[in-house]
Amino acid sequence: MNILILNWRDPKNPKSGGAEIVTLEHAKAWVKAGNKVTWFTSEFKIKDERSKTNEKVDGINIVRKGTFITVFLHAFFYYLFSGEKFDLVIDEIHGLPFFTPLYARNVRKIAFIHEVADEIWDYMYPFPINLIGRKVEKILLLPYKNIKFITVSNSTKNDLIKNGIKETNISVILNGINNKVLSELPLKEKNPTFIFVSRVVKMKGIEEVIKAFFYILRDIDNSQLWIVGDGEPSYVEELKEKMKSYSISPRVKFWGRVPNDKKLELMSRAHILLHASVKEGWGLVVIEAASMATPSVVYNVSGLKDSVKNGKTGVVLAENSAKEMAKQAILLINDKKRYMEYQKNCLEWAKSLTWKKSNSQSLNLINI
Hints:
Layout: E1 2-6, H1 18-32, E2 36-41, E3 45-46, E4 49-50, E5 54-57, E6 60-64, H2 71-81, E7 88-93, E8 108-113, H3 120-124, H4 129-140, E9 148-151, H5 154-162, E10 170-172, E11 193-197, H6 206-219, E12 224-228, H7 233-246, E13 252-256, H8 260-269, E14 272-275, H9 284-291, E15 296-298, H10 304-307, E16 314-316, H11 322-334, H12 336-352, H13 355-366
Parallel strand pairs: 1-2, 1-7, 2-6, 7-8, 8-9, 9-10, 11-12, 11-14, 12-13, 14-15, 15-16
Antiparallel strand pairs: 3-4, 5-6
């Protein structure tokens, strides 16, 4: 087959995230199975260097045109005038879809979505844009009523159903894990260490994690918090000022964006991952932490409640608050027997999530 993926980001885009990692893994498997795959996306700049218009990544043809806004129009013209005859179009939805049901009439289409944005709009845009976005999102899904969907968690599946998509049209394919799962329990830091791994943006719940650590430090005064990930310099400085006001700065370390192997090393040394995101499609960092025998304490939100097995690989909070996060993290780290049991469960859970299994499911779906 000749497959076209439409996604406003690609794996080399500095704004790429878990969705692009997942898409890449499936696309590589489709290429390996003998399919031709083109990934149409937007251009970007890293410092003063512009992205290439065309390049090949892991056997996938990457084509870049336009910005993250105009790419939707460029995709329309590319589909109509590229001279390619596509057998399947993967329409990847990140808030805005590519509206392929309106113009890709005589070709199979699959919508690929990690999360229905909904409340994320409130954290990304000011009033009244946030309210308009939440209202419009359901309308934007109307052309996809009869389109097959791939998603990565039951939470997103339920959100899609609430937005009018038929349950029979939705396939849930859990994400695999790229890194090697530890075969034995690692040596942890001497002092109780909590870790946050994500983009440092408001919607990822970093402020809630910092508040939770403030409460943790009251009880465990030798504990430390590691923040792994980058964000806008102005926002990072704002967080640092907030930590000064909490008098916790000496116990917090900002690592910034680190290479993947360093990230995994830090996860293996930390005791507990804290995650308070507004919403996720699937908690990839939770699974990465589990693969390093590090349990998680997370807010009870879409994605995170799917990637943590509550009471087995971590804690999904009954009440989403910084105080409750701190309380449950303290209880877990002080209960050595339960903590070690969670560690062992983490490794088993991570081992069960393989790309071989996930790719097999996506290949079956695209070959129907």
